[in-house]
Specification:
single chain; mainly beta; Jelly Rolls; four-stranded antiparallel sheet; 9 strands; 0% helix; globular; disordered N terminus
Length: 145
């Protein structure tokens, strides 16, 4: 596949010669970003205690940035949350905000800090404050340098 066949985001006027057009490099400070969504089904456990749902166990395919995520809760637990983390047991770094599973429906990441990265061959877990929470989570990963 040639470079010209890869979809691109047009960042400037095609006649301007400053990036975003097939065969041109992006303008300074602009980097085309293509990523993928990871879907993780979350089955309810016994409930009453925290647990982890494994997304990647030392198998992240390349260094990635967690750009977004959202949780669709189908079985809620009062005051429960789900957080994407880079270590099990609630350790490591939070890669998302604590997504509320207090009610059924959708909760979107609202992390106010810069997006976090996970190294190639790194790990990613969903930390549930209560294993009774069920639903699905979608995580947008962008490859990065």
């Amino acid at each position: 596949m040639s470079f010209d066949a890869i979809p691109k985001i047009i960042t400037t006027d095609p006649g301007g010669g400053s990036g975003g057009w097939p065969g041109e490099m992006p303008a300074a400070g602009l980097v085309p970003a293509f990523g993928w969504w990871v879907y993780v089904p979350v089955a309810a456990g016994a409930g009453g205690s925290a647990d982890d749902v494994t997304v990647f166990n030392a198998t992240v395919p390349t260094k990635v940035r967690v750009a977004d995520c959202f949780l669709i809760t189908t079985t809620n637990v009062a005051s429960a949350t789900v957080t994407v983390r880079d270590a099990s047991g609630g350790g490591g770094n939070a890669l998302s905000s604590a997504l509320s599973a207090n009610a059924t429906g959708t909760a979107r990441n609202n992390l106010t800090a810069a997006t976090k990265t996970v190294a190639q061959s790194g790990s990613m877990y969903l930390r549930r404050s209560d294993s009774g929470v069920a639903g699905e989570i979608w995580i947008l990963l962008i490859p990065t340098l």
